[in-house]
Amino acid sequence: MTDVHTPEQRSYNMSRVRSKDTKPELIVRKFLHAHGFRYRLHDKRLPGKPDVVLPKYKTAIFVHGRFFHGHDGCRYFVVPKTRTEWWLDKINGNKRRDTENQAKLVAEGWRIITIFECELNRKTKDATCQNVKKHPTIIPVNACFL
Predict the structure, then answer these.
(1) pLDDT of the chain along its 146 residues, tens only?
(2) Which Pfam families does its entry note (predicted)?
(3) Measured between alpha carbons, how far is residue 71 from residues 4, 77, 79, 86, 91 in Å?
(4) Looking at domain 18-134, which of 3.40.960.10, 1.20.58.2190, 3.40.50.2300, 3.30.930.10 is its CATH number?
(5) pTM score
(6) Full strand arrangement of the beta sheet holding 52-54
(7) Domain boundaries in the chain?
(8) Nearest-angstrom CA–CA distance, 112 and 136
(9) Which residues are bridge partners to 61 per DSSP?
(10) CA dihedral 81, 85, 89, 95 (to 10 degrees)
């Protein structure tokens, strides 16, 4: 099956795919900031350059897109009909690299939270963000210790 776009159109479409400051990432960042968390973005010193780093809690948050990171079991994830083998190699390579980087972070004592973009849709984003806040590795800044 051939591509429905010309090579120039496909190149343009793919050039518009962002790797930083995506809408799902901004949702997570806005929630964290509103709840008193302070963070770093895309820390190059850490394996995998996590999207959000909470240094105070030694926690790294990855916000993954369902397509490029191959969200297993997601009803929205669809393997392309064109160049299927190439895309599967690409997606599986990304998943392997994600696993390796997360293992390195855990070995360095970091805690990992992974959020997929489909967990941040209109209906579930509030629950997902609340789960991040309640994650056992994160203690809210305004928590009272008696």
Answers:
(1) 567 888 888 788 877 777 777 888 998 898 889 888 899 999 999 999 999 999 998 999 999 888 888 888 888 788 888 888 998 999 999 999 999 999 999 999 999 988 888 877 777 767 777 777 666 555 443 332 22
(2) Vsr
(3) 25, 6, 11, 17, 10
(4) 3.40.960.10
(5) 0.79
(6) 40-41, 52-54, 59-64, 111-116
(7) 18-134
(8) 11
(9) 52, 113
(10) 40
- Residues whose CB falls within 8 Å of the CB of residue 63, separated by 6 or more in sequence, listed in order: 22, 24, 25, 28, 51, 52, 115, 116, 117, 120
First to last CA, the chain: 65
